[in-house]
Amino acid sequence: MTGPGPIPSPISRRRVLSGMGGGLAAFSAFTVLPPLARARGNIRDYRLKAAPATVPLVGTQGPATDVWAYNGGVPGPVIRAKRGERLRIHVENALPQPTTVHWHGIRLPVGMDGVPFLTQPPIKPGESFVYEFDVEDAGTFWYHPHFNSSEQVARGLSGPLIVDEDTPPDVDREILWVVDDWRLTEDAAIASFDRPFHDMVHGGRFGNTVTVNGRISEDLAVTPGERVRLRIVNVANARIFRLTFPGHRPWLAAIDGHAVPPRQFGEEDWLVIAPGARADLILDMTGEPGERFAVVDNSPEGIRYRLADLTYGAAPSAPAPARPAPVTWAANPLPEPDLGTATRLSLDMEGGAMGGLQTAMFMGEKLSGRDLARNHGMFWSFNGIVYPPMKYGHHGDPMFSFKRGESVVMTIRNKTAFAHPIHLHGHTFRVISRDGKPEPDRPWQDTVLLPIDGEAEIAFVADNPGDWMFHCHILEHQKSGMMGYVKVV
Ligand code: C2O
Ligand code: CU
């Protein structure tokens, strides 16, 4: 109950200097790697096979669900390394359609970023691709397809990627929750994808079944007095989780993998985790033996429902020592933007139901919102431009171009009637203000949630050369106009 299944041991832990280490001859049919700098650290090899599978999402009493999964499980296996190590992940596509894998939140060379038509050709059915990159930052990350994401992620393709700190925080144990939201039929089958417009124009493919580590109603057995690090990853297409922990006072200690000064929650405070985002909590199990507490999600429809139960076992024989409040752990080596000299830009988001587009540019033409909706199935714009989605096989011109090393401050304004989690690839930004007010601690994030009518300023150094996607992580919005890219040269 401490994670989504057994952690597969890396195939090889030995230091391997060239692309073909001992024991890897079986992979000679894989795509040839582009030249990369020699690994500085240990290499960890993993294999992911994306294929149809059947899993007991609603429990073994109910009908099983046909999904698409990595290595047969939902979520996919934990991919894990220490900071400074190199990951080499052999991906095999046994799906009935092309795919790619994106390593969400990882700063890596652009050729490894997994965006079809932008950073690599799609991996066709029956083909393979080897991703290889150093992990510079510790934290909680994840992986998912970037090809036809709204369907592939909804069908179950996603998994956690954890990079361990040099000195991890002092806790008794670690727990990983991959939270997801599924739209299921009464027979627990994945509901069809044949009427996507409603989802695109509203808040995305909202589900009716929430899972923790691929099962409904997780029971988490805990010991009175223990201190836990709880990593939460939201892999849902559209659902924003708003969690409360009745009876407990967790600290939020990392956002999107990056440490923040731990902030303690009140019993009624919401921990908001948008699609794509992660949170690391330090949670002291302050309940008594035999007690049971629900962890509650406060859904936007006003429904409060139980996500999981903390079930207290017997007291330990030696009582737990009193613990000081957790301290901030070491920062990742992120480049600090120079706010004085930064290039200042803004990004205005428009479209969707209850507002909608008047006109916008689409593939070089100015079109009415009605034409965009009816003839192209497009509903959203960034700065008046509706970005062509993946189905066009190209991504048009960049939204912005930056010189390598340039500091950027971007004001993002949500002029729509829906919240949008905006994600930048290949870089990590600071959120420096919200709605004109300085943001406490200026957290480092890769995904920032813009509430309805909200505004946020983000700042980063454009230091990673290449073309980097910048998009809404509500996957139905990504597909209908809210996905452009920035170029760093
Ligand atoms: Cu998590 Cu562009 O994606
Ligand atoms: Cu959106």
Write the layout of secondary structure elements.
Elements: E1 43-55, E2 65-70, E3 79-82, E4 86-93, E5 102-104, E6 128-134, E7 139-144, H1 149-154, E8 159-164, E9 173-182, H2 197-201, E10 209-212, E11 218-222, E12 227-234, E13 241-244, E14 251-255, E15 258-264, E16 271-273, E17 278-284, E18 292-298, E19 304-312, E20 343-351, E21 359-362, E22 365-368, H3 369-376, E23 380-382, E24 385-386, E25 400-402, E26 406-414, E27 420-424, E28 429-434, E29 437-438, E30 444-445, E31 447-450, E32 455-462, E33 466-472, H4 475-478, E34 483-488
Parallel strand pairs: 1-4, 3-8, 9-12, 11-19, 20-26, 21-24, 25-34
Antiparallel strand pairs: 1-2, 4-6, 5-7, 7-8, 9-10, 12-17, 13-16, 13-18, 14-15, 14-17, 18-19, 20-23, 21-22, 26-32, 27-31, 27-33, 28-29, 28-30, 28-32, 33-34
Bound molecules: CU-O-CU linkage and copper (II) ion.
The site of copper (II) ion has 5 residues, from loops.
What does this structure look like?
- This protein is 5% helix and 40% strand.
- The protein has 4 helices and 34 strands.
- Strands 20, 23, 26, 28, 29, 30 and 32 form a 7-stranded mixed beta sheet that branches. A 6-stranded mixed beta sheet has the order 10-9-12-17-14-15, with no helix packed on it.
- A hairpin with a 2-residue loop joins strand 28 (429-434) and strand 29.
- The structure holds CU-O-CU linkage (C2O) and copper (II) ion.
- Residues 102, 104, 144, 146, 276, 423, 425, 469, 471, 473 line the site of CU-O-CU linkage.
